[in-house]
Amino acid sequence: MTDFRIEKDSMGELRVPADALWGAQTQRAVDNFNMSGHGLPRPFLRALGLIKAACAKVNADLGMLDVSRAEAIRQGALKVAAGEFDRHFPVDVFQTGSGTSSNMNANEVIARLASSAGHVIHANDHVNMGQSSNDVIPTAIHVSATLEISEKLLPAIRHLRETIDARAGEWQGVVKTGRTHLMDAMPITLGQELSGWSAQLGAADARLRDTLVRLRKLPQGGTAVGTGINAPDDFGARVAAELTYLTGVAFEPMNNLFMGLASQDAAVEASGQLRALAVALMKIANDLRWMNSGPLAGLAEIRLPALQPGSSIMPGKVNPVIPEAVMMACARVMGHDASIAIGGQAGNFQLNVMLPMIADSLLDSIHLLANACRALADKAILGMELNLEQMEASLARNPILVTALNPIIGYEKGAAIAKRAYAEGRTLLEVALEETDLDEPTLRRLLDPAALARGGIQAGMTGAGG
User: Fold this and answer.
1) Which of 37, 242, 256, 439 is the most core-located residue (most Cβ within 10 A)?
2) DSSP code of 92?
3) CA–CA distance, 50 with 264 (Å, rounded to integer)
4) Does residue 122 have an active-site annotation?
5) Which neighbouring-strand residues pair with 348?
6) Is the pTM of this model over 0.85?
7) Which among 314, 258, 252, 320 is positioned nearest to 287, based on CA atoms?
8) Long-range pairs, 181-189, Cβ under 8 A, ≥24
């Protein structure tokens, strides 16, 4: 057939699509693996291209590869890194656990690109020189995750946090009813409430930055089993230095290459930090949903931007679609974390054998969370409006303000006043005037919500929780 060509490898001949840049080993993987219908993601392919470019440069510097051939490989690899040939990476995520098929896919594509420049390039002997799938794929996981966290996720977290901080500054003086157990509690300001969200994001940012210290350590140079067979002693250090030059990120060689091939502990750690961020975003999204609930039968403290009709049958209904989408993304990240934890346990002797799944899951988590942060910032928090009338009305009816009188009248008396106010549907001030010897100016001062939101003994704070 004219739309195929014949390629061969150590196992024999087979047909490859005529216009494909890949070769026999990639084609065998295409024929064998068809579980998910999608390949490894763009950030991973970028990392693969960068690694192959760095290795070619180092091989030339060490005199292992002639300069012209090395430069042809390097240029082809950089085009792969830039995404010019993504359609020529058809290997399914669910493949051999070492990711050998994806490594050979890169080797074959780059070899064909480099050979078209007038050189004879062999995928194994030249493109894969000084390397093994067993160190290239774990290195690609570290490089891709590091770049995606640094370039996309951390800026997205910062953007969301800055958006929250700006709104918190606007609403620092807006007092509302606090809630514990979803029940009325002592007052806080809206600015204080949002400051808690911002602090959660700040902690997530710090944890991720700490994890990057370990993700930036690369196992390149360990080759087949960690001993570095067929690679010069300083190969890994030189590749890390070249990757640093190419990306601007300070990569360095891993201290123990046996650990780097046999385990995925850094990926497991990174996934755990992503899960923690997902938990924080889930909390923020749920708070927004509750605060927006109504507009008549819920809390109705805020109005989120109306982005689309909320029902195919109920006219005029508008739903909190962005918080809901964020929550689903967070749920997926939590699922990925479970997969990555299981994958991390598959480090049998000298090699982990769930590398492609770990890579795909980790990078998808980073992608989802970066987009979730920006969606919350730009399509929810930035445009949300306050229902001040509703917040003020709820605050005025809140009998829990009696907590401020505890140091004066005691807990038992305060509880009786609160229960009577609830039962009779009256304000706390009215009942307290009848049940205590305190005059109205004193009670108004002690029960001032703005003062109570500042906390402290003078605001009636007793130190009890709940």
Assistant:
1) 242
2) B
3) 21
4) no
5) 351
6) yes
7) 320
8) 181/466, 182/290, 184/394, 184/398, 184/399, 184/400, 185/400, 186/400, 186/401, 186/403, 186/452, 186/453, 187/395, 187/398, 187/401, 187/449, 187/450, 187/452, 187/453, 188/453, 189/450, 189/453
User: Quick one: pLDDT band at residue 91, thresholds 50, 70, 90?
Assistant: very high
Indicate the pairing of strand 12-17 with strand 4-9.
Answer: antiparallel
Q: How crowded is residue 210: how many other Cβ atoms within 10 Å of its Cβ? A: 11
Q: What is the DSSP letter of 95?
A: S
Q: What gap in Å lies between CA 295 and CA 319, rounded to an integer?
A: 10
Residues 384-410, mean pLDDT to the nearest whole number: 94
Residue environment code for 233-251, b if the CB has 16+ CB neighbours within 10 A, otherwise e? eebbbbbbbbbeebbeeeb
**How far, in Å, CA of 371 to CA of 373, rounded?**
5
Q: Establish whether 181 is a catalytic residue.
A: yes
Given 38, 195, 311, 394, the catalytic residue: 311
Residue with tokens 């990476």: 89
Query: Of the listed 10, 115, 181, 367, which one is catalytic?
Result: 181
Give the rounded percent of residues in the chain with a pLDDT score beyond 70: 97
pLDDT at 147: 99
351 in helix, strand or coil?
Answer: strand
**Residue closest to 87 by CA, chosen among 126, 38, 147, 29:** 38
pLDDT at 2 over 80: no
Confidence band of 119 (pLDDT split at 50, 70, 90): confident
Q: What are phi and psi of 303, to 5 degrees?
A: -125, 115
User: How large is the angle between the packed helices 42-61 and 100-115, nearest 10 degrees?
Assistant: 60
The residue type found at 55 is C
Q: Is the dihedral of CA 313, 316, 322, 324 positive or negative?
A: negative
Tell me: the pLDDT tens digits for 269-324?
Answer: 999 999 999 999 999 999 999 999 999 999 999 999 999 999 999 999 999 999 99
